[in-house]
Amino acid sequence: MLRCTVGRLELRIDPTRPLYMQIVEQIERGVLRGLLDAGERLPSVRQLSLALGVNPNTVARAYRELEAAGVIETRAGSGTFVADDVAGAHVRRRELAWEATAVWSKEMCDLGVSVDEALEMARRALLSPPGASPPPARPPAEQPVTPADRSGLTRSEDAAESKSGPEAPREGVQR
User: Fold this and answer.
1) Integer CA distances (angstroms), 161 to 149, 151, 166, 169, in order
2) What gap in Å lies between CA 161 and CA 156, rounded to an integer?
3) Cβ atoms within 10 Å of 139's Cβ, excluding its own
4) At what angle do helices 45-52 and 19-32 cross, to 10 degrees?
5) How far, CA to CA in Å, does 68 sit from each of 17, 29, 32, 63?
6) What is the model's pTM?
């Protein structure tokens, strides 16, 4: 893995993925996370390509895509800078957050984690310092209700299920 620091952002390049896309993604995320400030000067195409050990055309392509997206701007004779007003930064930040949440929630469902347990884990993770160890595992208070379990429930039974838990089978509900 190749690494290079740009401002407070450390670019990490994995040679198994398209390089220009990684540069685009990481610079965009660096701007959205506040690791690269508006107006901050970026390395020249030549400087960044030498630092990363990649072809200058790769960096030039990434810079063109970032400029087209309004993330950076090139000023003739001065260099390349983070745009003063990154177009749609708030919207893009929410899109990225939603994508990350969707991946996380699918993984929780695939692992069979209940909604309450997943939300508690997320709350703890968000309030913990970065890199903190996960809390010790504790036995689940109840088995999670899966979509297959819900298929035979009516809405009123579904609501009762969420309040009472799955341990009390009811007549007419197949498990």
Assistant:
1) 10, 12, 6, 10
2) 8
3) 4
4) 110
5) 22, 16, 16, 9
6) 0.56
Q: Which residues pair with 9 in a beta bridge?
A: 6
Residues 4, 10 contacting (CB under 8 angstroms): yes
pLDDT in tens, 140-172: 555 555 555 445 444 444 444 444 444 444 444
Q: Residue written as tokens 């990481």?
A: 26
Give the H/E segment covering residue 159: helix 155-164
What distance lies between CA 89 and its chain's CA centroid? Answer: 15
Cα-based distances in Å from 39 to 45, 72, 73, 75, 107: 17, 9, 9, 11, 38
Q: Alpha helices, DSSP H only, in 19-142?
A: 19-32, 45-52, 56-68, 89-110, 115-127
64 φ/ψ sector (left φ>0, alpha ψ -120 to 50, else beta): alpha
Structure tokens at 71: 């993330």
